[in-house]
């Protein structure tokens, strides 16, 4: 009985996550209805809370897939509660991605939950565990962009539309960055089980620096330009214009003051 009770508590949704969901819902409603005195503040809270929700779901997907693949330790670590405070690297998984959204408007991949890989047998299972997180970002991006490619935005307030476009931008960038086959990122985790032991051993020391390497490359204007051209092309194919993502980011940064161009945008 005690074991069953403890296992149930290990999988119970955390009140912290429920609180974040509530903030997302309330601020989304305030953005939609124009209830907030300062729409930029509502957009900021809505996008930030929704972004944290997606980060929690990203890590949950890793943990849940690992559980079904043989790592039963993830429950005791609190990974199945969707509580962002339970992750192995709460700073890397939650705080830094939010800071990067505020500073640069880019979906920074979070730090993955700690999986006991020795418990898992089969290369496909290892690959699927790594792919589960960014696939969640892909699914989140599909949900965010659905109103655009379904032409279901008639009568939708522009502030909410811009916020949704910016949130979609974050999900697409997060998915694309996470799927890069760079050591330390999920994309490398997908292909790692299929590499020879010698290759894995040679690459392993570079894993802690993989994300830093990617962002160092993104600082180069040429690489940055190509990266965001790809992002814009993906979003345009899904019905989101660069004007909508631009205005969403401008509205999100409410402390910079109102943007006359976006205020006049339909």
What's this, in brief?
It is found in: Cell membrane. The protein contains 12 helices and no strands.
How would you characterize the overall build of this protein?
The protein has twelve helices and no strands. Helix 3 runs antiparallel to helix 5. The longest helix is centred in the N-terminal third of the chain and has 31 residues, at 39-69. It has helices spanning 2-11, 15-33, 39-69, 90-104, 123-149, 158-178, 186-191, 197-203, 210-218, 221-237, 242-252, 260-264. The mean pLDDT is 87. The chain has 266 residues and is mainly α. Helix content is 67%, strand content 0%.
- Flag low-confidence runs: none
Q: Please tell me how large the radius of gyration is.
A: 19 Å
**Number of helical segments?**
12
Question: Biggest sheet: strands, sense, closure?
Answer: none
Distance between the termini: 59 Å
- Tell me the overall shape: globular
Class based on secondary structure composition and strand pairing: mainly alpha
Query: What fraction of residues sit in β-strands?
Result: under 5%
DSSP E strands, number: 0
Mean pLDDT: 87
Spell the H/E element sequence: HHHHHHHHHHHH
Tell me the helix content: 55-70%
Defining traits:
mainly alpha, 67% helix, 266 residues, transmembrane helix, 12 helices, metal-binding, globular, hydrolase
Strand and helix map with partners:
Layout: H1 2-11, H2 15-33, H3 39-69, H4 90-104, H5 123-149, H6 158-178, H7 186-191, H8 197-203, H9 210-218, H10 221-237, H11 242-252, H12 260-264
Helix pairs in contact: 2-3, 3-4, 3-5, 3-6, 5-6, 6-10, 6-11
């Amino acid at each position: 009985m005690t074991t069953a009770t403890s296992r149930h508590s290990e999988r119970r949704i955390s009140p912290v996550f429920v609180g974040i969901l509530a903030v997302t819902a309330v601020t989304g409603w305030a953005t939609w209805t124009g209830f907030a005195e300062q729409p930029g503040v509502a957009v900021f809270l809505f996008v930030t809370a929704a972004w944290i929700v997606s980060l929690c779901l990203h890590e949950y997907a890793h943990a849940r897939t690992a559980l079904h693949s043989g790592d039963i330790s993830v429950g005791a670590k609190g990974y199945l509660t969707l509580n962002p405070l339970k992750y192995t690297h709460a700073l890397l998984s939650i705080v830094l991605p939010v800071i990067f959204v505020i500073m640069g408007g880019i979906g920074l991949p979070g730090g993955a939950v700690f999986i006991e890989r020795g418990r898992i047998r089969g290369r496909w299972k290892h690959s699927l565990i790594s792919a589960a997180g960014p696939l969640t970002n892909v699914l989140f991006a599909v949900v965010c962009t659905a109103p655009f490619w379904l032409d279901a935005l008639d009568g939708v307030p522009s502030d909410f539309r811009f916020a949704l476009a910016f949130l979609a931008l974050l999900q697409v960038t997060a998915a694309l960055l996470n799927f890069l086959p760079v050591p330390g990122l999920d994309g490398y985790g997908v292909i790692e089980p299929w590499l020879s032991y010698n290759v894995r051993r040679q690459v392993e020391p570079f894993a802690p620096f993989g994300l830093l390497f990617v962002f160092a490359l993104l600082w180069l204007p040429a690489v940055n330009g190509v990266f965001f051209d790809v992002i814009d092309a993906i979003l345009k194919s899904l019905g989101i214009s660069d004007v909508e993502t631009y205005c969403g980011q401008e509205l999100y940064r409410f402390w910079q003051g109102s943007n006359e161009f976006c205020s006049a945008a339909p």
